[in-house]
């Protein structure tokens, strides 16, 4: 299990975690895969897991995985891996904040249903682009290389 950590959402402090083993396994797998998809000259930088990202005054979040632009440190991709009993902050509060701040990409990984929700930004906020199941593969235009089979992400071993 990981240690608890704090997020500041519109001036309100939320204590998050500790995160369980299955949650951390999903984070490990995604982190390794995304790192392999970034070429040496990538426009993006992968931040350490749950690095603090300031999105606006009074709002500092710690996505499970974050890609930022190298030129201006703006968030490109946030990944939130859900844990049972702790869905509201990630699926309601933080999703709205990412949308308001025009983060281009959001992935919500849900082990209960073994799927990945992919959101992209439009002029009026986020749009659900797809819900990937274990029959599909994860990819992103900002990443190069092979797609990641969702079944492998959720594999038990």
The radius of gyration over CA amounts to 15 Å
Compute the number of strand runs: 12
Largest pleated sheet: 6 strands, mixed
Shape: globular
Name the helicity range: 10-25%
Offer a concise description of the structure.
The protein is 22% helix and 37% strand. With 157 residues, it is an alpha+beta fold.
Task: Explain this structure.
The structure is a single chain. The chain has 157 residues and is of the alpha+beta class. The chain has a single domain, classed as tt1808, chain A. It contains 3 helices and 12 strands. Strands 3-6-7-8-9-10 form a 6-stranded mixed sheet. The protein is globular. The protein starts with a strand and ends with a helix. The model has no long low-confidence stretch (mean pLDDT 92).
